[in-house]
Design brief:
The protein is an alpha/beta fold and 497 residues long. Helix content is 46%, strand content 15%. It has three domains: 1-16 and 374-497, Carboxysome Shell Carbonic Anhydrase, C-terminal domain (60s Ribosomal Protein L30, Chain: A, 2-Layer Sandwich), CATH 3.30.1330.140; 44-139, Carboxysome Shell Carbonic Anhydrase, N-terminal helical domain (Four Helix Bundle (Hemerythrin (Met), subunit A), Up-down Bundle), CATH 1.20.120.1310; 141-358, no CATH class. The strands form two sheets. Strands 2-1-3-4-5-6 form a six-stranded mixed β-sheet, with helices on both faces. Strands 8-7-9-10-11 form a five-stranded mixed β-sheet. Helix 2 runs antiparallel to helix 8 (130-138) and helix 3 (64-72) packs antiparallel against helix 7 (111-128). It is globular and about 75 Å long.
Length: 497
């Protein structure tokens, strides 16, 4: 009984189980029977397309466990291998590794290995079909490259928390089209690498000064840090990296932005630093809290506007009235802080865009997600791929070496202790890095780097690895070419090397 209680507690802590206590209704729109919650500023067609995308992606993962349960039930039958492959092809769309099936009659079916394999293959299906899957909604995003440029920014660099609940941040929460002007690098607790970000900023500045960025001559760089919180269970389902302490998560992200600005100005002179913006996200509802920077781009944690309140206050208004109300709310919260016009325009559009996501969660997820905590399928370690844009598909641990990324990896392993290990499943870890085909030998060196990282991960979590509770897969992508997420055992066939 004690072990059962511990296991259930771990699963709840990780967010695998829905909370026993009913969460409160979405405060943005509390309606009665027969009433509809439809806001004038919501793009209904875009919501429809995003929901279709969500279903397409989820259906690639949902059948995995039931399929493996079905296959395991007849693993000792004479026609097991052929029968298992037929079921896998029919339900999952791909065959299973022959060696894992052929040897099942001897030592039993290795369901942990098969589960990890299916997770990786389903993810690969998402990557391979990303263009077709995402094309219907990319063209309707409210914040695209043209709008970003019109606000005076040549680059928007976003650092959300590595938490899988933020994986759909761009298209869903921000309604921002993935494009060359936007980059996303996630870190545990939104604690991005200041030195790494300075290097990224320097590279973009060199491109701008050399004329390599459209509209870059008079443009600026915008850095956004995104922390998160849970409005229904703040003490249990907030940011794990900050112990679910919302105040700490907010201040830590604000401090990191200030450190980046100070570092650049100390190095390159006053006025060189980029604009910065602090945003909070309620992972229960996908609503955002936008903190208003002052004229010097200083971020004040206590000065903000919440999209939940805006949705509630403007529901029933015309589009024109709602836009005016949003402007008034920002002006009131600004409180003479000297908000820059380009920043004000960007913030107004960001708040407006998020209203569609609030309604999306109300319409398709009953106001709050059924699983308000973690429900990721795997850990992605190294460099993330932007091709999959959906909540809770993977936890991302940004790293160059395991030693540098140890805190992010440790948080990920802690999360998956509740999600997978408590159920007897292994932790799938996809080790992914980009290379440039323009650089001779880059691919081979990247594969070797992946092998080193894999060995280091297996050594760091040696006990899990020895117990078969850690499964690593290496993949590489050409940052400029067409090769995307190639598993290294398929390298020769897939890449033509």
């Amino acid at each position: 009984m004690v072990n059962t209680r511990k296991r259930l507690a771990a699963m709840r802590s990780a967010g695998y189980l829905q909370m026993d206590v009913d969460a409160p209704a979405n405060p943005a729109c509390v309606i009665g029977a027969g009433e509809r919650c439809e806001h004038a500023l919501v793009d209904q067609e875009l919501n429809r397309r995003l929901y279709a995308y969500e279903n397409v992606v989820r259906v690639r993962f949902t059948p995995i466990i039931d399929t493996l349960k079905t296959i395991s039930a007849f693993q000792h039958e004479l026609d097991f291998v052929a029968r298992a492959q037929r079921i896998a092809e029919d339900r999952l769309g791909y065959p299973l590794p022959a060696d894992l099936l052929d040897n099942a009659w001897v030592g039993g079916l290795d369901l942990r290995a098969l589960h990890s394999y299916c997770i990786f293959r389903s993810f690969k299906e998402c990557i391979d079909n990303a263009d077709a899957d995402q094309a219907p909604w990319r063209e309707r995003m409210l914040i695209d490259a043209a709008f970003i440029q019109s606000c005076g920014y040549h680059t928007v660099d976003v650092s959300p928390c590595a938490d899988g609940r933020l994986q759909g941040l761009l298209p869903f929460v921000f309604r921002m089209a993935p494009n060359d002007a936007v980059s996303v690098k996630a870190y545990a607790g939104a604690l991005f690498d200041v030195e790494g970000d300075i290097a990224d900023w320097t590279q973009r500045e060199l491109l701008r000064l050399s004329g390599g960025l459209p509209g870059g001559a008079d443009g600026n760089y915008l850095k956004i840090a995104v922390y998160h919180y849970s409005s229904s269970h703040p003490c249990e389902q907030g940011c794990a990296a900050h112990g679910s302490n919302d105040a700490l998560a907010t201040q830590a992200a604000a401090d990191r932005l200030a450190e980046m600005r100070a570092a650049i100005e100390n190095t390159y002179g006053v006025g060189a630093a980029p604009d910065t913006l602090l945003v909070g996200m309620d992972t229960d509802t996908d609503a955002i809290r936008v903190h208003l920077p002052d004229s010097e781009s200083g971020n004040c944690p206590m000065r903000f506007v919440e999209s939940t309140q805006l949705f509630h206050d403007t529901l029933g208004m015309s589009a024109e009235q709602a836009c005016a109300a949003i402007e008034d709310a920002v002006a009131e919260a600004e409180n003479y802080c000297g908000l820059q016009p380009n920043m004000r325009r960007f913030i107004l559009r960001l708040l407006e865009a998020n209203l569609s996501q609030i309604q999306y969660v109300i319409q398709h997820h009953e106001g709050r997600y059924a699983v308000i905590g973690h429900n990721e399928r795997f850990i992605c370690a190294g460099e993330a791929m932007s091709e999959l844009q959906l909540r809770n598909k993977f936890y991302f641990a940004h790293l160059d070496t395991v030693e540098e990324g140890a805190p992010d990896m440790d948080v990920g392993i802690k999360i998956f202790t509740g999600l997978n290990i408590s159920r007897g499943l292994a932790v799938p870890v996809l080790i992914h890095f980009h290379y440039s085909a323009r650089v001779p030998g880059a691919r081979e060196r990247t594969v070797a780097r992946g092998r080193r990282v894999q060995a280091a991960i297996e050594a760091r979590y040696a006990q899990l690895y020895a117990q078969g509770l850690l499964h690593c897969q290496i993949a590489v992508s050409d940052i400029e070419g067409s090769e995307r997420c190639t598993f290294i055992e398929d390298a020769v066939e897939a890449a033509g090397h």
